[in-house]
Design brief:
The complex is a heterodimer of chains A (1043) and B (215). Chain A contains 30 helices and 41 strands. Chain B is mainly alpha-helical and 215 residues long. Classes of the chains: A alpha/beta (1043), B mainly alpha (215).
């Protein structure tokens, strides 16, 4: 976190620990530097944007500066004296029906990810996909998405995508490729396909699976290898170990009262993680029928009818009859209150080595090394009475808690869950299955369905077989369909070296990357938004994916290449997918309605898999924990396994736990950092199995000791302007025998590497931004949020209250259900054309996100609690920013919105200076990419693209508000609750953010603001924020000491 | 000892007297530049690929505005007709007229016609046609007697002060909904009274919030 060229003074960790232990430090702290009161943090406190001097590179003298200022003052008015330049208006030649500028269309599709797929509605403006929303009818989405789906639209328009078929690096075309592939295939067909190998990532598409079946029938000797660096291989193997067959667990969090996570970050990833977050949150949400403020005034315009009551869950908000496109509004949660005595929540125990968002929400979080989770599983299984398993001691405080956790689980038999993490060994998964069985959860909170994977092999074995065969000269032709194996394969296998021994290498990929460099042929892969495909969701439901736009660069799909291998004629993706589904329908007459309905709904009815009844067997033995220092590999929360490395939105997204951008780091605990003598930004060298890699340290409070977590996905060398040269490549020390955890040595190198984090730009000092209570405390004292900071009375202002008649917009964010995933941040960025500023500017605190997720630590240094708080604009009724604008560029609307008018702003930045929440972002430089043509397509035409020198901030998605109001006014009715959903609220997996009209007493937001848990951030400053929060509740087990 | 030459007396008197006229002249020039046709393009006919005559199509042929400007009631953009709409008639009449050759060429080649915008607002203004039409603002109120224009031109400046003039007092310009597309509508003598009544009936609000137009 260095500013300028001076390296930071190393922090004295023991002093920080003492400060926090002695509760002399702040209650809620964001970073170690904040607690230490380091210089860097002070610089940010004194000046919101410190170190501006380097912006000015010209040696301008004071006289010249004054001359320029005087001239600009004199000529200031002249800017109005311009003539409107000539503009052309270019209509269609044949206008497609329903194509209306200003009226986006929504098409149902899905994004394949994590071995499954999440159903989406892609928003298209005049044929250009600009935004992704969830599909309310898809079981894996219920209207929400994750940040990968939100950012995927940028990948479609990525200027660095590969744009042409290449042969030996020269431009070629699809016809030539087909000829080359066909002739290679025909030669190998003489030997039944011996020597032809196809390497894909995890496939769950029924069409592709069917093509492979055809290939297997025609060319029995062809081998299909599967490799994905962060696939759920261990889940499949764990199921095979326990049940003898490849099944996929489907969790029903809505039935679970107690959840135990064995290093499972099920809120972050996995095919069902969005749905799981929602189901979990539904069991967490507390709404009491006690209120603490009078009901909002029932003010309505005359001549209007009140809108209908908020629709119940699973009913999307209605839309006008004309509009046939699927409704984009997510299914809403009920806000009805229950008596306080009936308030109840689920409880979650998490055992993990590094803080995760799931761990942040845990009622009890136990820190163990990743390789020790197996022992925890053993102990827990033994405590639950699973036969053939013996307890094992980890030597951490977790051991003492096992008995209590087991007791809690047994008290909730059939209503609890034990989940093993995707990156834990298969034996831990098998133990989790036996535990669920012992607790009678099967069929209630967990169901087992046929694996979503069309080829559920052990991917590591499959990869090893391929590499071995390549080295042995047994592979003539290698088809790599999707993925980037040269980068992602563990270093011990030396995929690149083995691949060079293959005579003909062909690659289908979205980018010209490390793999395509070593292949003879490269074919651009079509993005999921521009082509036909099909995919299975977390519960087996199939979505037929449809394109929103013609392939921008003539990209092809895996199916289109496989059809050549199958010996069939060259068919388009459309013909292949439609042909497959037509083949499953006997009757042509009922195919068309089936096809239309499936495409419209985004789901193929009746394809959710039927659960199977199985009985689990305990594994024979558990891999022992790593002795000494362990290094844990995890896919990065922003770029995953590296596939999103060229996505600027994701690179700049602050990772929730560390708030870092643009880099991966080596996470260590404060004690480990002390022992190694390193601090943030110090470079260490990690040596494992004879290989080494260097990375920068990041000290993470709450991380396990003697353990370091490193992230995959960085350190790439090719693949776009953003992909290469960032971070370090963790694959360099990864081995095929130890994919997820390895014993290693860490050594300080003495170098430093500057990192860009966003956690230091504000501090809360002694205030309580998060108000927390346990469920028991809440029941005794429902008004706990106002204890520490009383609400400032309304009358404490000289001005009379403004009567908000008509609409009164407000927002409520439930901290109890916010998982900190950051999807809201990316959704806002996509909706509002927010620019990416780059690492250097982020270091100066100039990131442009309109909503940010603050992450607070609470408690002692080594085992703190984590809390997340999304902070959009508060839309203060008494806004400090409005008073100080010299040109009235930010004024208050009659509906309570704090309006930011870009065309009036001259850039004094006084408003940002005055804002206590620091939600205003200034365009110091021309951050928006004015020039890259392909990025024009991704921009939302309803939102201004800002140039340099103007202030911007969250607008509650005013474009959506205005559009809904206009539609309502045209229909002569009031806007209904749920008709306007800002991008952040729409994307949120747990529906933690709720927006609406406070003047409508039946609206959800009015009811939420009447909840006793409601408070405003910094409300004691009398800003009267319209964005309010609901205090966080925890549900600890009273028998376990630490909460 | 005289510092200044005698002629300074004359020069200073002339310049002080003349300054008034000079300043007045500068103001007049600035005003003309800013408000005159040079800057506002009011009354200025712009060069178009085809000399389309609204007068002929509307007054002589009786075509309603919405036949071509199809989305005026549905979305912010009124809609410039696609070549297909022109060809809906001109594939049958005037099929060989030289003046229509660009239209036929557009239809043949699939290249759109490129018209020059007459009513053009700056990019930071988000204007929505559909709500204005729905609330009883007639086409001719802003666009003038288009049905009498042989060639299209602007009759109003479309400057912000002109828009705000109505937004502050919509009763001055509102008309019954069924008269919106009546180009010949004339405001009755009791417009203010009628206007207030219509405002209440159509629920027209005084929209002077910045974010109404400048998101």
């Amino acid at each position: 976190m260095t500013i300028g060229d001076n390296p930071s003074k190393p922090l004295d960790i023991s002093k920080i620990r003492a400060k926090l232990d002695g509760s002399k430090g702040p209650q809620y702290w964001k970073s170690l530097e904040e607690v230490a009161g380091s210089e860097e943090v002070q610089a940010f406190l004194e000046d919101e944007f410190p170190n501006r001097a380097p912006d000015w590179l010209d040696p301008v003298s004071r006289r010249t500066a004054f001359k320029v200022m005087a001239a600009s003052l004199a000529l200031a008015g002249v800017s109005a004296c311009t003539k409107q330049p000539k503009e052309l208006i270019v209509p269609y030649v044949r206008q497609p029906e329903d194509f209306l500028p200003g009226k986006p269309l929504f098409y149902a599709t899905a994004m394949p990810m994590f071995g499954g797929a999440i159903g989406l509605l892609a928003e298209s403006h005049l044929g250009r996909p600009t935004k992704i929303e969830g599909n309310p009818d898809h079981p894996g989405s219920l209207g929400a998405t994750d940040h990968f789906a939100q950012a995927s639209v940028l990948d479609l328009w990525d200027p660095d995508r590969s744009q042409t078929v290449t042969r030996y690096g020269d431009i070629s075309n699809w016809v030539n490729f087909v000829a080359a592939l066909s002739s290679a295939r025909d030669v190998l067909a003489l030997k039944n396909g011996e020597g032809l190998r196809i390497l894909t990532e995890t496939v769950n598409s029924p069409t592709v699976a069917d093509l492979f079946k055809t290939i297997k029938e025609n060319l029995p000797a062809v081998k299909w290898h599967v490799w994905e660096p962060a696939a759920r291989n261990t889940v499949t193997r764990g199921a095979q170990l326990a049940f003898g067959r490849a099944v996929e667990p489907v969790y029903h969090f809505e039935n679970a009262d107690v959840i135990v996570s064995l290093d499972s970050d099920f809120f972050s990833h996995g095919p069902g993680h969005v749905r799981y977050a929602r189901d979990w949150a539904d069991q967490r949400r507390i709404r009491t029928n006690i209120t603490h403020s009078p009901q909002p005034k029932q003010d309505r315009q005359e001549g209007y009818q009140a809108g209908p009551a908020a629709p119940l869950r699973n009913q999307a908000a209605t839309h006008s009859e004309e509009d046939k496109s699927p409704s984009p509004h997510p299914a809403q949660v009920q806000a009805e209150g229950k008596p306080l005595s009936e308030a109840d929540q689920n409880r979650m125990y998490v055992f993990e080595n590094a803080p995760s968002i799931t761990g942040g929400l845990a009622d009890h979080r136990f820190i163990v090394k990743a390789s020790q989770v197996g022992q925890i599983a053993q102990s827990l299984a033994a405590a639950l009475g699973v036969a053939g398993v013996q307890a094992a001691q980890t030597g951490t405080p977790a051991d003492a808690a096992i008995a209590m956790v087991a007791k809690d689980l047994q008290a909730h038999k059939g209503r609890c869950l034990v989940i093993a993490g995707d990156f834990q060994p298969p034996e831990v998964h098998a133990l989790a299955h036996t535990m669920n069985q012992a607790l009678g959860n099967a069929g209630k909170t967990v169901a087992y369905i046929e694996s979503l994977d069309a080829n559920p092999v052990d991917q590591v074995e499959s990869l090893k077989e391929l590499v071995g065969d390549m080295n042995g000269g047994k592979v003539d032709t290698l088809l790599i369909l999707g993925g980037n194996p040269v980068y992602t394969v563990p270093a011990d296998l030396d995929f690149a070296g083995a691949m060079k021994k293959v005579k003909l290498r062909m690659h289908l990929g979205a980018y010209d990357d490390e793999t395509s460099l070593l292949c003879h042929w490269h074919v651009p892969e079509a993005h999921y938004l521009e082509t036909w495909n099909d995919a299975r969701g977390y519960d087996g439901t199939v979505t037929i994916m449809q394109p929103l736009i013609d392939p921008l660069y003539d990209g092809k799909t895996v199916a289109e290449v496989l059809t050549i291998v199958a010996g069939k004629p060259d068919q388009s993706a459309h013909e292949l997918v439609k042909g497959y589904w037509q083949g499953r329908h006997n009757d042509d007459a009922d195919f068309t309605p089936f096809w239309q309905t499936s495409l419209h709904d985004g789901i193929v009815k009746g394809t959710a898999s039927t659960p199977v009844d199985l009985s689990a067997k305990a594994p024979g033995s558990i891999p022992p924990p790593v002795q000494g220092f362990e290094v844990v590999f995890r896919p990065d929360s922003s770029v995953w396994d590296g596939r999103f490395a060229n996505n600027g939105w994701l690179q700049e997204m602050p990772k929730t736990i560390t708030t870092l951008t643009w880099d991966n780091t080596v996470w260590v605990s404060p004690r480990t950092a002390e022992k190694l003598g390193v601090g943030n930004e110090d470079v260490v060298e990690i040596k494992a199995s004879g290989r080494s890699v260097k990375g920068a340290i990041w000290v993470v409070p709450g991380h396990a000791d003697e353990s370091a977590t490193i992230q995959l996905g960085y350190g790439r060398s090719r693949g776009g302007r953003l992909a290469s040269g960032i971070g370090y490549n963790a694959n360099a020390i990864r081995t095929s025998n130890a994919l997820w955890v390895i014993g290693a040595d860490l050594r300080k190198t003495g170098d430093s590497w500057r990192l860009a984090s966003v956690q230091h730009t504000q501090t809360m000092e002694e205030r309580e931004p998060i108000r927390i209570a346990t469920l028991a405390e809440y029941k005794k004292n429902p008004m706990f949020v106002n204890e520490s900071e009383p609400v400032v009375p309304q009358y404490l202002t000289l001005y009379p209250d403004y009567k908000y008649e008509g609409y009164k917009w407000g927002m409520s964010i439930d901290l109890d259900t916010c998982t900190g995933c950051g999807t809201c941040v990316i959704a806002c960025q996509a909706e509002n054309n927010i620019a990416v500023v780059g690492k250097i500017e982020v270091r100066k605190g100039r990131h442009m996100h309109w909503i940010r997720v603050d992450r607070y630590f609470h408690g002692n240094l080594d085992d703190p609690e984590l809390y997340f708080q999304p902070v959009p604009c508060m839309m203060c009724e008494n806004a400090p920013c409005e008073l100080v604008c010299p040109v009235a560029a930010t004024v208050h609307s009659g509906e309570g919105l704090n309006q930011m008018v870009y065309n009036r702003c001259v850039g004094t930045r006084y408003c940002s200076n005055n804002c206590p929440y620091k939600v205003r972002r200034f365009n110091f430089l021309l951050y928006s990419d004015w020039y890259t043509q392909s990025l024009y397509g991704v921009r939302n035409p309803d939102v201004t693209v800002r140039s340099r020198g103007v202030m911007e901030k969250c607008s509650y998605c005013v474009q959506r508000i205005n559009s809904a109001k206009i539609e309502a006014e045209r229909e002569e009715r009031r806007v209904r609750d749920g008709e306007i959903t800002p991008a952040c609220a729409q994307a949120c997996p747990t529906q933690a953010i709720v927006f609406g009209d406070i003047n409508d007493p039946k609206s959800r937001v009015a009811q939420l603001k009447a909840q006793p848990r409601k408070y405003g951030l910094l409300q004691e400053l009398s800003t009267r924020p319209r964005t309010s929060y609901l205090g966080r509740l925890t549900n600890p087990n009273s028998e376990i000491e630490k909460g | 000892m005289q510092i200044f030459h005698r002629s300074t007396n004359t020069i200073s008197r002339v310049s002080i007297f003349g300054a008034l006229f000079l300043v007045g002249g500068l103001i007049a020039i600035a005003y003309t530049l800013d408000r005159g046709d040079f800057s506002t393009d009011v009354g200025v006919v712009k060069e178009q690929p085809v000399p389309f005559s609204h007068k002929h199509h509307v007054t002589d042929d009786g075509i309603d505005c919405r036949y071509c400007h199809t989305s005026v009631e549905k979305t912010h953009y009124a809609g410039l007709p696609a070549t297909e709409i022109c060809m809906s008639c001109h594939s049958q009449i005037w099929t060989n007229a030289a003046v229509l050759e660009p239209v036929r060429e557009s239809w043949r080649t699939g290249q759109s016609l490129e018209w020059t915008r007459v009513h053009d607002l700056p990019e930071f203004v988000y204007f929505n046609h559909s709500i204005h039409v729905a609330k009883g603002i007639g086409c001719s109120t802003c666009h003038g007697r288009v049905d009498q224009m042989a060639l299209m031109y602007k009759v109003n400046t479309l400057y912000m002060n002109w828009c705000i003039n109505c937004h502050r007092q919509p009763e001055k310009y509102i008309r019954p909904r069924d008269q919106v597309f009546n180009m010949a509508y004339e405001y009755p003598p009791n417009q203010m009274e009628l206007g207030k009544k219509l405002m209440a009936e159509y629920h027209v609000q005084k929209l002077t919030d910045c974010w109404t137009c400048h998101r």
